[in-house]
Amino acid sequence: MSRETQDTVSFQKSNDEANETKKILMEVANALEEKGYNPINQIVGYLISADPAYITSHNNARNLIRKLERDDILDELVSAYMKGNK
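User: That's the sequence. What structure does it adopt?
Assistant: Structure tokens below.
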């Protein structure tokens, strides 16, 4: 194995990207709640399966979440979790 493959890769997003991801996630969560769904369960289902049917079309939530890459959603969720547990 070469030295290069053993180095840790750094992953960073801009603040603008993070803010847009957070904004969309909150809009999607609100739309899910308005329709009587548990937003956590539905978003987890979407992240695991990549099936947008887990997200309601109410208030354009399904189209909004499709604008995001799943890794960006995961980044935002893990960041929020880590900040909340410090």
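Helices lie at 3-6, 15-34, 39-49, 61-66, 70-84.
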